[in-house]
Every structure is written in structure tokens, then in C-alpha cells.
Design goal:
38% helix; Dna Ligase, domain 1; alpha+beta; six-stranded antiparallel sheet; 13 helices; 345 residues; D-amino Acid Aminotransferase, Chain A, domain 1
Length: 345
């Protein structure tokens, strides 16, 4: 097939997305497909292609910091124009499939999916409705809680308002909290706060345009993640942290954390996490043609809490979903081909 890979984009996860796009391109070429690698937010959107089996794809490096707010605004303008019409839209329309490797931002909040669906263009992953449901962490946790999945208490705070909400103050009074943008990904701007003064400093330092903060209790237990590909659940991955939080730097800099798959946990507990991941996948509207990755962290008693469901999880060489796939005996190319096959059904 001729496949256009969309990567890069306008989100704080831009570097991660570029790295995923390059890895996906190599896998698709290995399986005999023709590939065009496109960054719709770049000044020159076609990064490489048409590429054919045997061609070489350059690698991309994930930076230590996400793009600045000013850079993001420029990227958003270019991406909006590219998706609306012109050469990028024509390339996608001529392709057999668009492979979405756009992590975060428009790639995961449903906007890109909505535009592709309106244009009648086939793409990988979930539809815009499911992506939007998973992207907003507060609404996603409300849906998961209503479906009977274990979620933590939480409160929302709009930085810049005159007073910290009572619900936020109550959570802080009970112990350390985690604060993060209610709609963002890849552990961007995730912080631990032990006092109201510390939380206020975090809020003051947030980048413009990040919106509300989601504040929830800090969970001191072990951290796990579980991928679901179509109707198959993958082995559990444990994320062994040397820092309190699995933040952007820890997630994408090699050697910052240790990730174990299959996780060294009792079989009954692993089965429970896998069952919860499938239930979360379905509760948010992901179907048998899609894939997701659900993140868990345990409380002080060892009970797992569902943190979030990722609609387009990372596909870099160090990402968690490829690691989980390897635990199931799949190569990286197997994983990418399965995602393609799901979209073509």
C-alpha cells in the first residue's frame, strides 16, 4: 500500500511524534509498503518520500524540553493550513491509508481525526469521538469511574483565579498532590506539590494556554501500563522509577527509568490490570479496530488506580507500547502491521 505517515505536529510532544514517525516509516518499508513521511506543521511538510522498500529513513532525536509556547503557535497555524487543503491534503487523499503518529494536541484530541473523516480518508487508530473522550483527563476519569473502574479523587483549578478552590485545598491538606494540565500528554508539565505555596508556584510557571490544572492525590505505589491492540490485551509493563513522577524527561531520555515487561507481579494481579485496561478501552469508546494504552499507579495499599487512557501512545524505540508488544513476542514491525491491518478492516 501507499501510506502517508503524519508526525511532528503542534503539540508539546512534537519531538516524540517525529521520532515515532521515523520508526513507523522504517517498519512499513520493511513490510513492503511505499511511505511518505509528513509533518503538517513544518514549513516543508514532506520530510521524506515517496520512500520504497530498501530506502533509508533518518532518525529523529527527542529533546529534553517540549517546544515553547511561541513556537507552538507558529506550528498550529501551519498545521491548520496544511490540513485544510493544498499538497498535504492531496497526498493524504491519494494514499491508501494515513498512519497517525501525531501524539498529543490535535492528534489526540480528535481534531485531526474529524478532518480526515470528513474528507473520507482512512486512518489508523480511534475516531475523533473516542480520542476527545480520552484526551480531557477530568472527563475521562468521570466516564471511567461511572463504568466502575478505580480512579482517584480529583479537583480542577484555573490558575490566575483569585482563590484556590476548596476541593484543591482539601486534597492538599490530606497529603502530597500531583498537578498536571487537564488536557495534555506524554507527562508534560506533571508536578508533585507538598504545600499550597508550592502548588501556586507550579501554577504560576505553567505555559500560557495550558488551561485548567487537574489536581489529584500523589499515589506512592508501583506504576504499570497495559496496551490493547484490537481485541488483544498485551502483557503488563512495570515502570520502575528513580524519581517520584514519570515525567517528560524520564519518559523519553534513555536510561532515566527501568521498564520491565512482563511485569514481575503475581499472575492474578496481572490479569486484573489487563481486565481493567480492556474495560477502560471500551468505556471510552475504543473499538476492535483501534488501539490504546492505559496507565495505572497504585495507592499506599497497593490498589491500582486508572490514571488515563492514551489514544495514540508513543511509538519510538523507547516507548512503552512497543515494549509491551515485544513481551507478547511481536517484533516492532509486527506491531505496526497489526495497527495497519486494524484500520483496513
Amino acid at each position: 500500500m501507499r501510506i502517508v505517515i503524519l508526525c511532528g505536529g503542534e503539540s508539546p510532544e512534537r519531538d516524540v511524534s517525529l521520532a515515532s514517525g521515523g520508526s513507523v516509516a522504517r517498519a512499513l518499508l520493511e513490510r513492503g509498503h511505499e511511505v511518505v513521511l509528513v509533518d503538517p506543521a513544518a514549513e516543508a511538510p514532506v520530510l521524506a518520500g515517496p520512500l520504497r522498500p530498501g530506502d533509508v529513513v533518518d532518525g529523529f532525536t527527542v529533546g529534553k524540553e517540549p517546544p515553547s509556547g511561541l513556537v507552538r503557535r507558529q506550528l498550529q497555524q501551519r498545521m491548520d493550513a496544511a490540513l485544510a487543503g493544498g499538497p498535504v491534503r492531496e497526498l493524504m487523499g491519494e494514499a491508501d491509508l494515513v498512519f497517525l503518529a501525531l501524539h498529543g494536541g490535535w492528534g489526540e484530541d480528535g481534531r485531526v481525526q474529524g478532518r480526515l473523516r470528513e474528507a473520507g480518508i482512512r486512518f489508523t487508530g480511534a475516531n475523533g469521538t473516542a480520542c476527545a473522550a480520552a484526551w480531557h483527563k477530568d472527563r475521562a476519569q468521570a466516564v471511567l469511574g461511572a463504568a466502575g473502574l478505580p480512579v482517584t479523587e480529583r479537583a480542577l483549578w484555573q490558575p490566575g483565579t483569585d482563590e484556590v478552590p476548596q476541593d484543591v485545598q482539601r486534597l492538599l491538606a490530606a497529603g502530597p498532590v500531583v498537578a498536571k494540565p487537564v488536557a495534555d500528554g506524554s507527562s508534560v508539565s506533571v508536578h508533585r506539590a507538598d504545600s499550597l505555596a508550592e502548588l501556586e508556584r507550579i501554577a504560576a510557571g505553567m505555559r500560557a494556554g495550558q488551561g485548567e490544572l487537574l489536581v489529584e492525590p500523589f499515589l506512592p505505589g508501583r506504576e504499570f501500563t497495559v496496551g490493547v491492540i484490537g481485541g488483544q490485551v498485551l502483557p503488563v509493563v512495570e515502570i520502575e522509577l528513580s524519581t517520584p513522577l514519570f515525567d517528560y524527561t524520564a519518559k523519553y531520555q534513555p536510561g532515566a527509568v527501568s521498564e520491565v515487561c512482563p511485569a514481575l507481579i503475581p499472575a492474578q494481579f496481572a490479569s486484573r490490570l489487563q481486565e481493567l485496561a480492556v474495560r477502560a478501552h471500551e468505556a471510552l469508546g475504543f473499538d476492535a479496530h483501534t488501539y490504546s494504552r492505559t496507565d495505572f499507579r497504585c495507592d499506599a495499599a497497593g490498589e491500582p488506580m486508572c490514571l488515563e487512557v492514551n489514544a495514540l501512545p508513543g511509538l519510538t524505540a523507547t516507548s512503552l507500547l512497543p515494549l509491551a508488544a515485544s513481551g507478547a513476542g511481536w517484533t516492532y514491525a509486527d506491531l505496526i502491521e497489526r495497527i495497519v491491518d486494524l484500520a483496513m478492516r
